[in-house]
Amino acid sequence: xxxxxxxxxxxxxxxxxxxxxxxxxxxxxxxxxxxxxxxxxxxxxxxxxxxxxxxxxxxxxxxxxxxxxxxxxxxxxxxxxxxxxxxxxxxxxxxxxxxxxxxxxxxxxxxxxxxxxxxxxxxxxxxxxxxxxxxxxxxxxxxxxxxxxxxxxxxxxxxxxxxxxxxxxxxxxxxxxxxxxxxxxxxxxxxx
Length: 192
Fold this sequence. Notes:
Blueprint: H1 5-9, E1 30-35, E2 45-51, H2 59-68, H3 70-78, E3 88-91, E4 99-106, H4 115-131, E5 136-139, H5 151-164, E6 172-177, H6 180-191
Parallel strand pairs: 1-6, 2-4, 2-5, 5-6
Antiparallel strand pairs: 3-4
């Protein structure tokens, strides 16, 4: 089934977090670390570390599709191919967030990734979130599942991307994962 970009992106958007509810530090969004499923985050958008074709077969993408519905993958595929360093929006299906940002960390499904691709994907996702006026987003480990990238290095890379952006709208970024080692990496890097 084909979904026109206009149809996907023209849904009314209301941020979940108001500007009064979060205090920014050094002009950067507040970063919060959580253990849990990204599918349970009540945020404006969640990030899917995708592949360029929009297929959502395994890892975080597979869980997002399983909980949110097939419509999410259908909308992502309709906008493919998406290069590493670009990001797209889809609806959130049955999820409690408003939108999903798909940011490829790899070209082909289940392909190994690296620091450069993770940085480009994280930066593209964050920039799109800010451009769209989102106030709160949630990100899992980027490239650390089927991409095979080291969890601590992936977290350092995502935080580096956060620090490179001049945010105008994003006020809160939740780093969330179900994996204990990933959450420990988030904690270690964010505390520094």
